[in-house]
Amino acid sequence: MMDRREVCLKAAGVGLAAGCLGVGGAGACLAQTAAGEPPKTPCEKRLEWTENWTRRFFETLDGQVDEATRRRLMTANGRACYRESHAGREVQPMPADELVARLQSWAGPEGCRREGDAVYFTYKAGPDGGCLCPLVQKGPAELSPTFCLCSVGYVTQLFETGLGRSVRVELLESLRTGGKACRFKIDLA
User: Fold this and answer.
1) Which of 2, 81, 151, 152 gives the lowest tally of CB atoms within 10 Å of its CB?
2) Structural contact between residues 41 and 17, judged by C-beta atoms closer than 8 angstroms
3) Domains in the chain, start-ordered, CATH in brackets?
4) Is the predicted pLDDT of residue 28 greater than 80, yes or no?
5) DSSP 3-state assignment of 119?
6) Does the predicted TM-score (pTM) go above 0.70?
7) How high is the mean pLDDT of the chain?
8) Is 3 exposed, middle or buried (0-12, 13-18, 19+ CB in 10 A)?
């Protein structure tokens, strides 16, 4: 499966990059590069612009919006991301142990484990870590840890849908907070 950068590069290679032309037209999209480097394609330039916009947006959000509001906005977005990515799938609520077992089949026994009224859920893209979100995986290196609150909303919606009731989710670790994976504690009580 190709990532978004590969798709744009392939499109540019077969002459379909006209749809990727961004700010200022074709001439403005071709970046000036160091001697010996080929100029960036219009899609590469557009992706760079998008990554810079995203980084700048989160810097602004962090500087202008209080933590409680940032948390509320990002978790709401994560819930919406879950609902959109699972649209059309019927999920019947199940007991917590059954949901944990289903998640273990995907994440492994250490990726999802229950300890009393808490479930510890870890996801990572591959054995060396990584994030399942393409903006974290391939986006701006300086992306704010605020962005990871989106995953709190996603995991909250995942568990609330699977259990048919409310839960509280705490982010224990993420790539943007210096971790190698995204780890969550889900309070079932």
Assistant:
1) 2
2) yes
3) 1-64 (no CATH), 67-187 (3.30.1380)
4) no
5) strand
6) yes
7) 81
8) exposed
SS3 151: helix
- Could you say which DSSP state residue 133 is in? S
Q: What is the CA radius of gyration of the chain?
A: 20
- What is the C-alpha separation between 6 and 94, in angstroms, rounded? 39
pLDDT in tens, 139-158: 777 889 999 999 999 999 99
Q: Tell me what pLDDT residue 176 has.
A: 84
Q: Which of 70, 18, 24 is nearest to 49 (CA)?
A: 24
Q: DSSP secondary-structure letter at 14? A: T
Residue in the block written with tokens 């259990």: 163
In one-letter notation, the amino acid at residue 130 is G
| Amino acid type, 156 | T
Ordered strands of the 118-123 beta sheet: 112-115, 118-123, 182-187, 168-173
